[in-house]
Specification:
By secondary structure, this protein is mainly α. The chain contains 4 helices and 2 strands. The longest helix has 14 residues. The protein is elongated, with a radius of gyration of 19 Å.
Length: 108
């Protein structure tokens, strides 16, 4: 990451690509906003501003992965574990749209 000196305090001025890379790492991680900002050396208010701008423009990164549901005699047919700490376990699985609706209601 290239740093450009903008004043005597030597604040970093990040490119849009560098900022997006940081936001992607924030969304994938399990850190609080404060802990992430400290870890990355950015101001908490800066991170909050970036997240607000991201929400306002609707550019929150979303990734999908195809689910293959095996026929199993195990206890759970499907288990989804979030990087944020929550787990959804289904004893039965009927349709993809129903699962999509369930997951969209959960905090990501």
């Amino acid at each position: 990451m290239a740093l450009r000196r903008v004043d005597s305090v030597s604040r970093r001025r990040l490119t849009a690509q560098e900022r997006q890379r940081l936001l992607t790492r924030y969304h994938r991680g399990q850190f609080t906003q404060r802990a992430f900002a400290e870890r990355e050396g950015i101001g908490l208010s800066t991170l909050i501003k970036w997240l607000q701008q991201e929400r306002a423009t609707g550019q929150v990164p979303v990734s999908f992965q195809e689910l293959v549901v095996p026929s199993s005699s195990g206890r759970w047919v499907l288990e989804v574990v979030s990087p944020r700490g929550w787990t959804v376990r289904l004893a039965q699985f009927s349709d993809g749209p129903g699962l999509a609706g369930l997951l969209s209601a959960l905090p990501c």
